[in-house]
Amino acid sequence: MTAGERPAAGSRGPGASSGQRVADWFDGRLGTHTLGRKYLRKVFPDHWSFLLGEICLYSFVILVLTGVYLTLFFHPSMNEVTYNGSYVPLNGIRMSEAYASTLDISFDVRGGLLIRQIHHWAALIFIAGMLMHMMRHFFTGSFRRPREVNWLFGWTLLFLGLFEGLFGYSLPDDLLSGTGMRFVDGAVLSVPIVGTYLSFFLFGGEYPGDDIIARFYSLHILVIPGIMAALVVAHLILVVYHKHTQFPGPGKTERNVVGSPFMPVYLAKAGGFFFLVFGVIALISAVASINPVWSYGPYRADQVSTGAQPDWYLGFAEGLVRVMPGWEITVAGHTLVLGVLIPIVVFPLLLVFIGAYPFLESWVTGDEREHHLLDRPRNRPVRTSIGAAWISLYLILLAGGGNDIVATRLHLSINTVTWAVRIAVFAVPVLTFVATRRICLGLQRRDRELVSHGRETGVIKRLPHGEYVALHRPLSPAELHTLTGHEQPRPLAPGADRAGEREVSEAGPPGG
Ligand code: HEM
Ligand code: HEM
Fold first, then answer.
1. Inter-residue contact 398 to 314 (CB < 8 Å)
2. What is the pLDDT of residues 467-504, one digit of tens each?
3. Where are the domains of the chain?
4. Side-chain half-sphere CA neighbours of 263 within 13 A
5. I want to staple 238 with a disulfide (CB 3.0 to 4.6 A). Which of 150, 225, 260, 511 is the partner?
6. What biological process terms from GO does the record include (predicted)?
7. Rounded distance between C-alpha atoms, residue 251 and residue 319, angstroms
8. Which ligand has the nearest atom to the CA of 237?
9. Topology (CATH level 3) of domain 44-362
10. pTM of the model
11. Which ligand is the nearest neighbour of the Cα of 222?
């Protein structure tokens, strides 16, 4: 076809079957045949870790479906009403319409409680799935050129997901989520100079105001899911455009993709997997109670519940605030609440570091090449150790976010727990970095041993002259290929700097 020429409309003659005519009709108008021919044969590599992205996708779909059902019954209003419904212990209590409608969804709407539970469990699995999916891309280096932009799309999805969850669990306006709102207000107030103004702006007046639930509602059901849906589509378009990365193995190169075609193999698997994810979430939601707002009671600004934690994915932000000493200074007549301000600056920085990592790594290593074969984490000890240190920091802060629960469960003083977390925040990531790097180097050495001597058989043989030897079985060519199919540092020329030489051979390829 020359430039400007139009594609021919469906052109089968009158003898064509009705199925062919329907296909022609669509092809002539939507170009489905051409698109299908091009993309339905797209190759998907077979590896379990690719399912993590699918878990994110399916739980997002489940969130949208259940979310739409909840919108039919939820009233995003802070008007005060007196409850008079099926949950007798709260009858006659004054509460916001939002809280009353959540009670109605839980006790009076058919299937309401199950859908609420599915929505909440799906949110937890969605964010856990995103973190696992992100870690798998981090540790295998799939974010390298040309996928840096897709990494950023994914990272933005994670960032939005965290806030989408916060806005979602704030909607019922119960005592627990209201305590979280108080935390948000405190964080906003700590912003120097404009904090008070921002708080009045956000809450539509003095905290808690009458508007915050309706505002969060618009963000939760419209703005953020809209942006997320667009980003998911863009993310998947880029996956198709770049084609998948793959783990090294026989027949796999930087220039091909080995796997099964989208149609029919992958589509059948993916369809089945969707129902599996839906089924498991529905099962968990049917048997494990989550966010029983009726037992917390309605939010009142003069009350606070003990043992209040955010959902786990925001626990590390809570931890930062809880373990920070309550420092306050005055600068030019303005009070700076450093005890809150520093954590709310560090919290996004911890995430921004992850978002910027692909660019930082290629800047430090000077590696601008395209990569389509994945790394085995042990072959990149520095990156793997950075990832492990980041996870350890996240977990320590998560424990800090639940310092009261840790203290009561382990019968410790809360000050002991807080001090332990303060020390661990600095010490544990460093120790984790060092230990992980040593483990990676050890694993590399084991690989080298396997490649050069084969696997131990456990058989000891005595030679005629009396010597004992351990027998090794050589690896298969496929195993050898997998273990050696990574970039290997080139030995330095004789006479090169001895310190530099050790550095290169220990750290693997540059920037390893
Ligand atoms: C995409 C990610 C989403 C996440 C992470 C998320 C998360 C949450 C969470 C944790 C809750 C609290 C549930 C509870 O009461 O225990 C919630 C409530 C709610 N969500 Fe979502 N949600 C998402 C998307 C949506 C969408 C797309 C809609 C609507 C189209 C929606 C509508 C609602 C409504 C109406 C409520 C309040 C009802 C209630 O709490 O019972 N959500 N959301
Ligand atoms: C709504 C959330 C997300 C969905 C639905 C999603 C879905 C997917 C799917 C289905 C794939 C292809 C299969 C695979 O490689 O696993 C993929 C690839 C990818 N995702 Fe995500 N993802 C999400 C979030 C993220 C996050 C949070 C990151 C990282 C910060 C990320 C980074 C990537 C990268 C770099 C690829 C390309 C890897 C390759 O080609 O091998 N994604 N995503």
1. no
2. 999 999 999 999 999 898 888 877 777 776 655 554 44
3. 44-362, 442-489+497-507
4. 7
5. 150
6. respiratory electron transport chain
7. 47
8. 2
9. Cytochrome Bc1 Complex; Chain C (1.20.810)
10. 0.91
11. 1
